[in-house]
Amino acid sequence: MAASTDPVYLRVLEDLREQIRGGVLAPGARVPSRNGIIARYGVGETAAKHALQVLATEGLIEARAGSGSYVRRVPAASHLEHDRLHFPGSPFGLEDPQRAAGGGTADCGPADGEAHSPRLSWEHQSERVAAQPHIARLLRVEPGDAQVTRTRYLLCADGTPVQMVTSYEPAELTAHTPVPFPEQGPFAGRGVIERMKVIGVYVDQVVEDISVRPSLSAEAAALDIPAGAPVLLIERAHRAGPRTVEVGEILIAADRFRLRYRIPVTPGPDQRGSDQRGSDQRGSDQRGSDQRGPDQNGPGRPGTGTGDRYTAEGQGGAGAALPVGAGVSR
Predict the structure, then answer these.
(1) Amino acid 29: pLDDT
(2) CA–CA separation, 33 vs 52, rounded Å?
(3) What share of the chain is helix, strand, coil (3-state, %, to 5)?
(4) Domain of 83, in residue numbers
(5) Residue 3 has what pLDDT?
């Protein structure tokens, strides 16, 4: 068998990563030191150092000065619902605790033991700046010369950062109008779609590209995560016909949150009537199958003697959920 060409550190990295994810190394447990890794795995100092660096970058361990590295205590991931398309900053909001727990009603108030509703706060700052090349390309303006309105948002829940957003709009589009800045004037906080409508610009498409990448130092500091820890990056564009009127970048800690999309589906014909007709048909088919015998199932059916039952069990349920994952454009 040919020798593996994989870097030596990968063997160490994969084993330690599996121990952390499998619970062998529990949250708070001390990870083998660099010298311990060298002795245990028979690798050099460079490989041991690199393995620990990657684990830290992935957010699985944290270094403590003078003490070593320990498995990070990461809270269970929460959901951010994509249900605020007309909100400023981000369309993602924290999941309603009542909806998540199934407790409480609008009339009766919260049920005993219901999940805590966090106190939410938005910080925002807008300014006019020169368009950076990649932003100018997205907005189709001249790089360097053209001005854009840049608005930065930070959403916190009970003082803990949840997501940060940077939004860009062509300054010439909203200058000298009632909506020069997203969070100023009579239409402050209305969101891109409503603000643009005020000046006769009608957004007809919102595109979102989702990916994952390591966080930069400033981003990690703002989100209170280790530098290099993975973040979800949602690159968004509001379009009005062929023109892009806003682009934004939304950053969310990947180990703390999952994005949830609820996609409405138009109901079909009366399901009850359809189910009843299907039941009657199955009964008829079953009687016919009984008359034909077990080896006469008819064309197109497996020779199992079960009639339509095989087909029914092979179909997906009407309520099957389709997950939305990274890299999906919406």
Answers:
(1) 94
(2) 9
(3) 30, 25, 45
(4) 78-99+117-260
(5) 46
